[in-house]
Amino acid sequence: MTRINELLSHYPEDKKKSALLPVLHEVQDAHDNWLSIALMDKVAEILGILPIEVYEVATFYTMYNLKPIGKYMFEFCQTSCCCLRGTEDLMDYTCEKLGVGIGETTADGLFEVRGVECLGACGYAPMMQLGDFYKEHLTKEKIDQIIADCRDNKIILHDK
Ligand code: FES
Asked: So where does [2Fe-2S] cluster get bound (predicted)?
């Protein structure tokens, strides 16, 4: 609540709804990286808006997770530049290596693979987002190293 109140202090009292996106990020970060219905209802209460107004935003953007996810979410960009540079092969390779399909979590709860739209780093294709950071110019060798670093707890997910 301290962080949420700090965020809300940047908005006029009657425009709290404008803080919805950053508040959802804060809540998600503080709750194992996903948003339950109860959490979204609490956000609606805090912002003084209807729960449906929170649901419609949380279900629209892929950065909000509506179910528990793997600790390390590999979000591969699947838009044109990354596709042309081999994203689909890399996703297949990653899924095969981890023994999961797209959107599934590994049995140990560590990994999940997801396809997302352009992340604005087209010049570094193929790329993915992992936590708050981008992994760029991906190759199978880089994927191997990233997975090993995750398993060794060497990957930092958040920049704050
Ligand atoms: S197409 Fe992949 S980051 Fe833009």
From this structure: 77, 82, 118, 122
